[in-house]
Amino acid sequence: MINMRVFLLCSLVLMICTTNTVLGQDKTDSNLENFEELQFRLWTGYSFNSVYLLGKTKNTISKIIGIGFKRHIRNYESGAKLYYTADVIPFVEYEYPKRDDGDNFHFAKGFGISPIGFQLMNSITPQVSYSMSISGSFIIMDNTFPTDKGRKLNFTFDPSFALNTKLNSNLSLNLGYKFHHISNAQTGKENPGIDSNFLFLSLIFK
């Protein structure tokens, strides 16, 4: 457990340092005025069921927790703002029917990192805005998943939509929907995958 915590902490620090270097912008550019400070976020999601779409494992309950940051990288003439996002995922859990065991339900837990993501945000009122996001992750499960011919290492992508409310100058609350796909990307002997419908809640703070 200590090694996992060290890994997650080092991953987050590395992502912040890399972002400061790779995504550094010249704030004197007229298109890059009024940039916001680096913001941190804590979020959690719950999916009551999975869908049969890209993933082929149905009737799955999913839970996830993430912590990370978002960095303002571009303004648009329309008023929209683009952010780079990155997260560590200290906890993800699936309760799913395992086909190798006659569809009896099993639990699988994992952790991972989401090194790259983008969020486009636009205001509705001074206090309320909406956002569209997408990110990708590497997830390490505690066992081969979701079948015995799957893999411990899996990959995700997760487009999402959220409504955002400013609670004060330093704190915002986001509530939204996230389509979350996880699979081994055909690197295992079997790749049924899982598509979760996450309802998620985020706290954003400076």
CATH class call:
Mainly Beta
Strand content: over 45%
Distance between the termini: 28 Å
Helix proportion of residues, in percent?
10-25%
Please state the structural category.
mainly beta
Residue runs with pLDDT of under 50 for 5 or more positions:
1-5, 25-32
Explain what the structure shows:
A hairpin with a 4-residue loop joins β5 and β6. The chain has one helix at 2-22, and strands at 39-47, 50-51, 61-75, 81-98, 104-123, 128-145, 151-157, 160-168, 171-183, 194-205. It has a single domain (2-22, 36-205), classed as Porin (Beta Barrel). The relative contact order is 0.19. Helices cover 10% and strands 60% of the residues. Strands 1, 2, 3, 4, 5, 6, 7, 8, 9 and 10 form a 10-stranded antiparallel sheet that branches. The chain is elongated. The chain has 206 residues and is mainly β.
